[in-house]
Amino acid sequence: MKLELFEEALCCSTGVCGPSVDENLLRITGIFESLNKINQVEANRYNLSSNPADFTKNELVLKKLQEKGNDILPITLVNDKIVKTGNYPTNEEIQEFTGIVFVTQNSQSSSCCGGNGTC
Question: Which of 2, 28, 31, 73 could form a disulfide with 42, with the two C-beta atoms 3.0–4.6 Å apart?
Answer without folding.
Answer: 2
